Protein: Transcriptional repressor
Amino acid sequence: MSDLLERLRGRGWRMTAQRRVVAEVLNGEHVHLTADEVHARAVAKLPEISRATVYNTLGELVSLGEVLEVTTDKRAKRYDPNAHRPHHHLVCARCGAIRDVHPLGNPLADLPDTERFGFTVSDVEVTYRGLCPDCAGA
Amino acid sequence: MSDLLERLRGRGWRMTAQRRVVAEVLNGEHVHLTADEVHARAVAKLPEISRATVYNTLGELVSLGEVLEVTTDKRAKRYDPNAHRPHHHLVCARCGAIRDVHPLGNPLADLPDTERFGFTVSDVEVTYRGLCPDCAGA
DNA sequence: GCTTGACTTAGACAAAGTCCATTGTAGGAT
DNA sequence: ATCCTACAATGGACTTTGTCTAAGTCAAGC
Structure:
């Protein structure tokens, strides 16, 4: 965790109480939080922090490649701190629960040149959908 | 196209001018429109149509399986009329252009049981990201 | 041509996110 | 240790996307 703060400082990130709190929130839990949830947890540690700052900071962390933005549903973006090991997501269609998963194979290699239409393809995002045990059982 | 209208009528869909116009807009162009774009095109054909009706109708078409909802970016949902041939999407990270693509293999089979966490996995959505020729060239 | 219940409408509302002018402050310079 | 200043934070207005509701309208069956 201080790894993250160290890395950021090394890249010339100006360290402020707000940024530290946001980074701590993301590192503290291995879940996929919405911006609002990050804000709520940040407020618990630093009551004066504003929504705009949380959005700004999240945006910077994404630009720096420290955090992934995940848009699994139409609602809010979610932020995934597990940016250094490539992985994909499994989402419950009913309750929205998200798990990180590691499929076999390399989906990037599965897109033939004839299907690339001249694009420079750099990334692939796989989202599995289904029902989690709780929602399927009920 | 009248195929679509026929199918819908066969399923007990009450046919109205508004619904016809929305269905025509989706069938008319092989692009991925946002709800607002659908509304704009629908207004061109039927000026009195309201936003709520477009949203309702799109939602019904999705429920009926005639149209796919695609959420490639954080902005608006897009609607893909090409629901009867399974496919995935290639998105330009800069301009947002979308192409339908057909990767090799079956990503659903690439998720081992040990990575399913008890979920009933029913669907998979693959989004390739990169730069389109225009954006990469510039 | 009626009737009826499903459909449509306009506009208020809500949620998620962005923008901007102002105020505050981290960290280097002195 | 103190000062400076560029960068960061604030908060509130604003935008975008989508949902809801009460009242009016109309497609389809009789």
